[in-house]
Every structure is written in C-alpha cells, then in structure tokens.
Amino acid sequence: MGASRAAESDAAHAPRHGVVVRVTHWITVVCFLALVVTGAEIVISHPRFYWGETGNVNMKPLFTIPIASSRDTVPTGYGYVMPDQNGWSRYLHFEAAWVVVLTGLVYGIAGLWSGHFRKDLWLGRGEGSWRAFAAVMGRYLRRGPPGEADAHSYNVMQKAAYLGVIFVLFPLVIWTGLALSPSFNSAFPFWVNVLGGRQSARTLHFFVSWALVLFLVVHVGMVVMAGFWSRTKAMITGR
Amino acid sequence: MNQITRRRLITGGVAATAGVAGLAAAARIAGRYGLVPPDCKGIYGPGETLTYAAQRVLTAHSLAREFPRSMISKTPFMNETAPKSDEFKRLEAGDFKEWRLAIDGMVARPGVYSISELKSLPMRSQITEVVCEEGWSYIAEWIGTPLSDVLQAVGVLPQARYVAYFAIEKDWWDSIDMADAWHPQTVLSWGMNDGDLPVGFGGPLRLRVPRQLGYKSMKYLTRLTVTDSMKKFGKGLGSASPEGGYAWYAGI
C-alpha cells in the first residue's frame, strides 16, 4: 500500500471536474441567481435606459422596458406602482458581487496554476477552424449522439462558450457594474468615461447581464440534453 | 490513502485556523482605521463592510468627476416635492430669511447660521452629477459653502468620527464619516446653475456629497451634529436609510 498505487487509481478515475471547479461553480450559481433577481428588482425602479452621461424621466430614453415601475415618478402607462424592493436588493446585489468576484479570483488563480485553462478550455490543435466549429454545430442540430471524446473533454463550442463567459462576459459585467459607483469613478474616472458615460455603462451592464442569462439558459438546456442528473452529480461529486 | 487523508486534514485545519485568525485580525484593523460602517451587522453586513472599507482605501482623497458647463442638464429631475409642513410654508413665505442651520455636538463653538451668513463664508461652485440609486442622473452646477469651512469655524474636536445631519422633516436624517465631511466637494449648497437653489432641488439648503448616491445629498437641511459614534442616533445604524432597508454608505 503506497502512494504510487493511490496515484495510479486516481489517474484511472480522474474526476470529470476538479474540486476547485466544482466548489467555485456552485458558489457562482448561487451568487449569479442572487445578482439576476436583485438586478431585475433594481431595474424595476427605473425601467428606462439611456445613452451617454445623464438620463432621467425628463429626457428621451434609448429604450423602455414595458413594465410597471416601483416608483410613481416614472411614467410607465400602468396605473399602479410596484412595491419598492431596492433596499435589500442593493445590499444583496453588492454582497453577492463581492462573493462571486472573490470566488472568480480563486478560480482564475487555481485555473492558471493547475493548467485547467490550458488543458481543458484552451482550443486544441485544429479546433480553431470554422470547419471544426461547423462539425460540432451540425451534430448539435442533428441532435446526434456525443462523440467518444465528449465524455471527458469539452468540444470546441463548449470551450468557446466557457472562454467567452469567463474571459469576456464576466470581466465586462464587473467593469460596467463598477462604472456605476460614483465613489469608484472619483478615483478612476477613465473607468466610466471610456464606456461613454454613466448611462451608457448602465445600459451596457443590462445587456451583458442578459448575455449571461442567455448563456445560463443554453448551458442548462445542454445539461438537460446530456443527462441532467448524471452531469449535475458530476459537478457535485466530480464523478 | 490514509496518509493522504491525514495530510489533507492537517493542511485543511491549518488553513482554516489561519483563515479565521486572518479574518479576526482584518476585522480589528478595519475597526481601528474606521473602515467599518455603522450598518455592519446582519446578513448584508459583510458585503457592506467590504464595499465601504475597499472604497475608503481606494478613494481616500479622490475628487468626484466635474463636468464642463456645456454638459449641465437642461432637464434635471427634482424627484421629491417640497415638505408640506406649515413650518416649511411659513419659512418659504419669508424667502427663507429665517431659515437656520444649527451646528452642535463635538465642536468647540456650537453655532447657528442663516443662509446669508453661510453665503458670507468662502464659496465653492462645482459641476457634478446627481446619481440616484434608481438609475437616473443629471448634471448641475452646485454653489455653496464647503462643509469643511463651517467645520473649521466651529472647531471640530479630535474624537469626532461622523457628522450627522437633519432635515426639517423629522424622520429625514443621515450621516457621513469625517473623510466625506472634510472632503473639498462636500458642500452646503444654497445655489444651483447660477441662481438660488430651487425648493424642488432641496432649497434653501442641501448637503451635496457628490461621491455618493443622491440620497446622501439630503435636502432642506436644518441641523448638523458632530459625533464620535452613530450608536446614539435612531437605531444606531448611521442614518434613516438602513432603518428603511437602504445602505448607510452609498458610494456604489
């Protein structure tokens, strides 16, 4: 009985997901749901969006979401005002943001350290072509059975989606969110100025959030197609 | 396998102990340097404390963005209507000549100022954005007396940690820490866009705190109290905002 035999059996049953990936995944799930719900509550207090630095009910919006508002000062065309949920929503939004950002930091450092990004997510040789992309896309559209390799590695579309979420959408949603902090902007004015102003940052924050929600819907849809319980179990136990 | 489990247990235990000790030390340091907000308790306390501490460290002396005159909003938004009390109507009828701002608490020379007395002190004009927690905003020129000049005049005692402020409406009160109180852009504003501050925008006197959200820039100001602790005010959460569910610190 030695360490070598233990290592051997570990290699034979390499977990589908490492422990850091599993733990950070579920913390992110909880935080993301909290952020989406509270973000929606905050939007309800002013369901109008603008472009540029300033915007208020006396100005022409870029677009309006056709819902009632939780403020009687917003003209929505509805004859009623929704209950104000901004207090706890704002508290929870920022607390969840802190947890998910710190979790993301742990995930990012561990991912670089362990080679998770390089080995599992970075596009492999020959994967970066449109043809490879089209092949996987075609298989999804035909709803064909997954390939042999799909049991223990990601295909090119999965990799592209995960890389996009981790390295594009999450940084963007953090950027546009922080740009809404008047205090943070006082120390780093370029942070909001490069986005075209405060209201542009708010509008972008809204769209990037939608992109993340869209990813979540497709992601869960794919998990359901691949076998909800087995994939969910794998993300919990690693097997 | 047992060896690995034991090793993991030990490293895990050491890491957990170090983590708890680190958190305790961080909490002590944060308390020592005034990085803990009055509403630091409860389930949202950790997030609030992290936000407040991080922003205090990052933005110690930073100035809120100021804008060119051309960016002043042509259609600013007032949000609230004027106080409906008879007292306010009486003062408004008298052109606010009898409006008074009292300053008390931990100061060497408590005082009472009329608007014209405030206007005789050094003046500051700045073009900053009012940003509401709801999402809307506007830019205006705010003219007034820097709070720091008034604090200097009354002589703030060294143990001061907050300035609490009160509106003519009884349940409107708030507070800022000394970093914001001494901040050059924190202004007792009595003018807006080259005129007197209109009643709809908080006239005759509004505190402007441009590094925080609009609700910290309280309208219809009548009293300032310098204090070493917010525990003595209301429920001890720093302002009326947390009592209504909103955060005391509104830097984001």
Helix content of chain A: 55-70%
Q: Which class do the helix and strand fractions of chain B yield? A: alpha+beta
Strand order of the largest sheet of chain B: 2-1-10-5-6
> What is the helix tally of chain B?
7
Largest sheet of chain B: 5 strands, mixed
The count of β-strands of chain A is 2
Radius of gyration of chain A: 22 Å
N-C termini distance of chain B: 49 Å
Shape of chain A: elongated
Oligomeric state, counting identical vs distinct chains: heterodimer
The percentage helix of chain B is 25-40%
Q: Are there runs of chain B of 5+ residues with pLDDT below 50, and where?
A: none
The CATH level-2 architecture of chain A is identified as Up-down Bundle
Give me the secondary-structure topology:
The complex is a heterodimer of chains A (239) and B (252).
Chain A: H1 3-12, H2 19-44, E1 48-49, E2 63-64, H3 86-114, H4 116-121, H5 130-142, H6 156-178, H7 182-187, H8 190-193, H9 198-237
Helix pairs in contact in A: 2-3, 2-9, 6-9
Chain B: H1 2-32, H2 45-58, H3 86-93, E1 100-105, E2 111-114, H4 115-119, E3 124-131, E4 137-146, H5 147-154, E5 162-167, E6 173-177, H6 178-181, E7 187-192, E8 195-196, E9 206-208, E10 221-227, H7 240-243
Parallel strand pairs in B: 1-10
Antiparallel strand pairs in B: 1-2, 3-4, 4-7, 5-6, 5-10, 7-8, 7-9
